[in-house]
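Quick look at the format.
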Amino acid sequence: MSTIDLLLHLDHLELDDAAPRAAFALAQRLGARLDALYVADLPATAFSLPEAVPVQLEETQRRVAEAQAHEGIWRESLAHHGLQGTWRVSQGDTVQTVSLAASGYDMLVMERSQSRSDAPVGFGSVSRCVFASGRPVLVVPDVAPVASLGSRVLVAWNGSRESALALAAAAPLLRKADQVHVLDGSEMNADLLPVLPPPGLTEWLQRHGIEASVQTLDTGPSHAAGPAVLDAAHRLGADLLVMGAWSRSRLAQMVLGGTTRHLFMHGDVPMLVAH
């Protein structure tokens, strides 16, 4: 019996899109249970105009009923992939609902739209769930091809707490990967981050049964790390990127830029992130 539980958040009912395909691939690779959660979003602003409340509630109830009718399709998809799980439907604020639900799971899977401009600076739904859920999140760009997931993995390590959390969360995947590459940028960021003791990264990987090649990431200015990481992911053919999210504050990311912001804006590779 699997001891890993995954939660896939859906804000639509298409199971052929990037996030569902990534979730199926992840669950199969880990032998995990996979539950889906559809949230009919009902933000607090929906109640700002009293006369609009009945219309908002009626539309939400319609979406809930439509989603509930898709349970059979979800179960067929699980069976097709040889997986087990449940179909959950809820209504309310997306971030609050998803973050609360995720507390009972080992990992959360969410799709991020490239067309959303709020996500990169940390205030979109996916970004806020990374902060609020307290769980590692597999962020899947809607443009990601997802031909495979977890076969060739690139770890972007900078020695931060967030980086360590992401690495620990990814350990079960890294042990099963065909190739693991680590870009170590901890020295480059030593003046910006409370870097964890650098000795031990290679030993930690070995102790956890992870075979990896470790290379130093030295791009000069820290704002150049994002493009360098994405270029490396493309060069190596990585189908998964593992990294900490927002080692600096969201305000600093917004004003100064940063690796997380760049990859959320331009990344086309699924990212397992932790904060």
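Next, a different chain entirely:
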Amino acid sequence: MARRIVDNKIENQITLIQEHTWRESDYEWRKDVAQMTRYKMELESKQTPNEILGIEGICSNIYFKAFGAMLKCEFPFHGRNRRPPKDPVNVIISLAYTFLTKEVCNALEAESFEPYLGFLHGIRYGRKSLALDMMEEFRQPVVDRLVILLFNKRMIGKYDFEIPDDGRILLNEDGFKKFCKEYERWMNGRNTASGEKSFRRCIRNQIAGLKKAVSEGEEYRPYNWGKRHVLDQL
């Protein structure tokens, strides 16, 4: 199950890179895709969660370099950072991931899952590991695509952030209101694939599928953006 989660996440990352419009960019994204594909093939030989997370970490580092090249905004982005985020793009990514985790956790609890026990993320005090596991399949389709939209369309800009004396980057009240409005529109709108009505419904459907897989011993299939997108085009 842990291998399946990471395999699907890497596939979603590759799909987002491949679907981006690179015509006016000299970034060599094909090299990133080739690298990630090679690491993805190594997953089958990994036997422990730490080994699997190692592959996930390597691919995510490659992916976020490409992600930075997809951004066309006034803010620099040199990869993922957190606790606290050190630039406006990471502020929005972290906030959106927090919202997504809450969405997934609510859906898990509605199906009577124990969110602290995961397949990939180990048990740690206060960490809802199963929610983190399940959100992996939605990071690229839900959050990363939204972040690119918000910055590339100038829906979030420099006047939405504040920099206190301690050097932190903070989203101000107006910026937070903008983000919440666009997040809700994104989650409830038709930004999915294959005619699915909203990402919230997609999340609930996936959790229901997990429940069936666990209770009936069936194979669980994570939310694969690439395959659903292809179906939507046929």
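The beta strands are 161-162, 170-171.

See the schema section for token definitions.
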